UniProtKB/TrEMBL annotation:
GO molecular function annotation: cobalamin binding; methylmalonyl-CoA mutase activity
One of the record's GO cellular component terms: cytoplasm
InterPro entries per the UniProt record, alphabetical: Cbl-dep_enz_cat, MeMalonylCoA_mutase_a/b_cat
Domain Methylmalonyl-CoA mutase alpha/beta chain catalytic span(s) in chain numbering: 127-480
CDD domains: MM_CoA_mutase_beta
Subunit structure: Heterodimer of an alpha and a beta chain.
Protein name: Methylmalonyl-CoA mutase
UniProt-listed GO biological process terms: propionate metabolic process, methylmalonyl pathway
Native organism: Amycolatopsis alkalitolerans
Length: 607
C-alpha cells in the first residue's frame, strides 16, 4: 500500500504473472469438446463457438463468449439520458409491491406489516375499497388500482378515501390504473381513451405525485410474445396515451409523468435485465423526439405468469427468485413477486409470505440495491440491451405503420404476430429445447397435487393467456383421470438391451420423458429375456433402451417378440432407423416429446 506523498508503481497489472489468453486457444479447446461429443462436423470450417450460439425469439444471436472486442454503444450514466443504467442516480432499492385480487383486509395488512411498501389492488367493486384498505396508512403505502372498466368509479372511491384520511392532495402517490388499451387487448372490444385522458388531465395539477395511467406489457407477454414484441407494444401504447394526453392540453413532460409501465420479469435473468434497460432507452428517445425532456420511465416489473407451473409448483419459488433478482438488477422501480401457487388459484398465506420475503432477502440480506446497475459494463449485457432495443424499436415502428396499437389490435395484425411467436415457442417447448423443470423435465409422478380456491375471474375474450407448461400439464391431467378410474397410472415397459453401461443413459432419458406425460415407466434393468419380462410387467407398450450396437444386433428380434407378446406399440430410445423393425416412434433429444406422449397415451387407451 502506497502512503500519501510517495510514488507508487506506474501500472498495476492484476494477474500479470499469467499469460494473456488468446481467443484462438479458447476456440481450440471448444473444438476439442465438440469433436468428442460428435457435434463438430468434419467439413466444418467456421469458428467452432458458432455451434454453441443460441437465438432468441427476436432473432438475436447469443454467443457463448463476449469480450472487449464485442463493442456496444455507450450506456451513459445512472439517472441521465438515455437512462439505460437506471432512472435514478443513486441505488435506493425498489418498491416491494404486493398484488391482492380480493378485498382481504387482513392479508393486505399482513403484507404491509411484514415488508411490503405498496399494494396493487385488483378491485372487484369500487365500494369494497374502503373495507379492503381499512387500517392502511395511505400516506405511507401507495395504492395501485386495477379495476378494469370501472377505473373511473374506483379512482373516485380511492380519492374520497384519501380525503377522509386527510392525506394532502400534493402527497398522494400510487396509480389509479386507467388503461383502456389493455382493456381492448384483454376483451377484444374497443375502449375509448377519452375518459382516462380526461381523468388524468383533471387530476394532474391537483395531485402532482399521483399517476393515472398504466401502460401494460403483460397482455402481449402472456399471449406468447417475445421480449421485443412486449416492449414494442408497450412503447406503442405509451405513445398512444402521450398523443391523447397532449391533445387534451398537457405538455409532453406532464403527460409522460402520468404513465407507469408494467413488464414481465422471467427466469431468463439476462433477457429480463436487458429488457428493462432497453425499455428506458426507448422511452427516453420517444419523449425526446416528442419535444419533451428525455426522461426515464417508471417501471413496475411482475414475475411472469406464463412461466408458472401447476405441477411441482414449488419450483416456481426458484423461478420468481431469479426473476426478482433480474428485475432489481435491471433497475425496476417496483417489483411484484407473485406467490408460487398463483397458477392454481387464490394464494395462501404461506405462499404470500414466501413471495414477500423473497424480496426482503434480496434487498436487506443480499444488499442487491447497494450497487447501481451491477450489470453495467458487461460485454454480454450491453450487447444484448442494444440488440433488444433495436429489435423492439422495429416492432414499435411496425405497429405505428399499422395505424398504432389500437388499430393493430383491432385489425388482427398484432394478435397474428403474437400467435406466430407462440407457435414457434410451442415447438421449442414440445421438443424440450425450452425445458420446464418439474414438468417437461424431472417430473414427479408421486407428487401430491396442490389445491387452492379458485381466483376471481379475469377478462379473457381478447388476447389469449398462455402458460408454457399448459400442454404438458394437460397430459398429466389425463394420467390423473386414468389413475382415479383404474387405481394405477398408464405404464410403459423399458426393455433394456445390452450391458448396464450401454443402456442406463437412454433408459434414464426415456424414463424422464415418459413421466412428463404421466406415463409410469416399468424399468427392471438388465434381464435375460426382455419379452418374458414385458409379459410379466402387465404393460401394453414398450420402449427399447440400449446402445446403437445392441440395437443393430438385437432390436429387430426383440421388437418382433414384443409385438407377438401383445405390445400395442414399441418405441425405441435413439435416433430414427427403419432397420430396427416395426416401431411406433423414437424418443431422443430434440424429438417432439408432446407428440410422442400424446400418441402413447392414446395407444394406452387414456381418454
Amino acid at each position: 500500500m502506497t502512503q500519501a506523498g510517495t510514488t507508487g508503481p506506474d501500472d498495476l497489472a492484476l494477474a500479470a504473472e499469467f499469460e494473456t489468453p488468446e481467443r484462438a486457444a479458447w476456440q481450440e479447446l471448444v473444438a476439442g469438446v465438440l469433436r468428442k461429443s460428435g457435434r463438430l462436423p468434419e467439413d466444418f470450417d467456421g469458428a467452432p463457438e458458432r455451434l454453441l450460439a443460441t437465438t432468441t425469439y427476436d432473432g438475436i444471436e447469443i454467443q457463448p463468449l463476449y469480450t472487449a472486442e464485442d463493442g456496444a454503444p455507450p450506456a451513459g450514466f445512472p439517472g441521465l439520458a438515455p437512462f439505460v443504467r437506471g432512472g435514478k442516480p443513486e441505488g435506493t432499492g425498489w418498491d416491494v409491491r404486493v398484488l391482492h385480487e380480493n378485498a382481504d383486509n387482513q392479508a393486505i395488512l399482513a403484507d404491509l406489516e411484514n415488508g411490503a411498501n405498496s399494494v396493487w389492488l385488483r378491485v372487484g367493486t369500487p365500494s369494497s375499497l374502503a373495507e379492503a384498505l381499512d387500517g392502511v396508512y395511505l400516506d405511507l403505502a401507495p395504492v395501485v388500482l386495477e379495476a378494469g372498466e370501472e377505473y373511473e368509479a374506483a379512482a373516485s372511491a380511492l380519492l374520497e378515501l384519501l380525503a377522509q384520511k386527510n392525506v394532502p392532495d400534493s402527497e398522494v402517490t400510487g396509480n389509479l390504473g386507467a388503461d383502456p388499451v389493455t382493456l381492448r387487448a384483454r376483451t377484444g372490444a374497443a375502449h375509448d381513451l377519452a375518459p382516462a385522458v380526461e381523468l388524468a388531465a383533471r387530476l394532474a395539477a391537483k395531485h402532482p405525485k399521483l399517476r393515472t395511467i398504466v401502460v401494460n406489457g403483460l397482455p402481449y407477454h402472456e399471449a406468447g410474445g417475445s421480449d421485443a414484441q412486449e416492449l414494442g407494444a408497450a412503447i406503442a401504447a405509451g405513445v398512444a396515451y402521450l398523443r391523447a394526453l397532449t391533445a387534451a392540453g398537457l405538455s409532453v413532460d406532464e403527460a409522460a409523468a402520468q404513465l407507469e409501465f408494467r413488464f414481465a420479469a422471467t427466469a431468463d435473468q439476462f433477457l429480463t435485465i436487458a429488457k428493462l434497460r432497453a425499455a428506458r432507452r426507448l422511452w427516453s428517445r420517444v419523449t425526446e423526439v416528442s419535444g419533451g425532456v428525455p426522461r426515464g420511465m417508471k417501471q413496475h416489473a411482475v414475475t411472469s405468469t406464463a412461466m408458472f407451473t401447476q405441477r411441482d409448483p414449488w419450483v416456481n419459488m426458484l423461478r420468481t427468485t431469479v426473476a426478482c433478482f433480474a428485475a432489481g438488477v435491471g433497475g425496476a422501480d417496483a417489483v411484484t413477486v407473485l406467490p408460487f401457487d398463483s397458477a392454481l388459484g387464490r394464494p395462501d398465506a404461506f405462499a404470500r409470505r414466501v413471495a414477500r420475503n423473497t424480496q426482503s432477502i434480496l434487498l436487506e440480506e443480499s444488499h442487491l440495491s447497494g450497487v447501481i446497475d451491477p450489470a453495467g459494463g458487461s460485454w454480454y449485457v450491453e450487447n444484448l440491451t442494444d440488440a433488444l432495443a433495436h429489435a423492439a424499436w422495429r416492432e414499435f415502428a411496425e405497429l405505428e405503420r399499422a395505424g398504432g396499437i389500437e388499430a393493430a389490435l383491432d385489425s388482427g395484425f398484432l394478435p397474428g404476430k403474437l400467435a406466430e411467436t407462440w407457435e414457434n415457442r410451442s415447438r421449442r417447448l414440445a421438443t424440450r429445447e425450452d425445458p420446464i423443470t418439474g414438468v417437461s423435465e424431472f417430473p414427479q409422478l408421486a407428487e401430491k397435487p396442490v389445491v387452492r380456491p379458485p381466483s376471481p375471474s379475469v377478462l379473457d375474450n381478447g388476447l389469449p393467456r398462455h402458460r408454457y407448461a399448459e400442454q404438458f400439464e394437460r397430459l398429466r391431467d389425463r394420467s390423473d383421470a386414468y389413475l382415479a378410474e383404474h387405481g394405477e397410472r398408464p405404464k410403459i415397459f423399458l426393455a433394456a438391451l445390452g450391458p448396464l453401461a450401454s443402456h442406463t443413459a437412454r433408459a434414464m432419458f426415456a424414463s424422464n420423458l415418459f413421466q412428463a406425460g404421466g406415463v409410469e415407466p416399468v424399468n427392471p434393468g438388465a434381464v435375460d429375456d426382455a419379452v418374458a419380462a414385458f409379459r410379466a410387467s402387465g404393460a401394453t407398450v414398450a420402449c427399447l433402451c440400449g446402445s446403437d450396437r445392441s440395437y443393430a444386433e438385437q432390436a429387430s428380434t426383440v421388437v418382433a417378440g414384443l409385438r407377438e407378446a401383445g405390445a400395442k406399440a414399441v418405441l425405441l430410445a435413439g435416433k430414427p432407423d427403419e432397420s430396427y423393425g416395426e416401431l411406433a416412434g423414437f424418443v431422443h433429444r430434440g424429438c417432439d416429446a408432446l407428440a410422442v406422449l400424446a400418441g402413447t397415451l392414446d395407444t394406452l387407451g387414456v381418454k
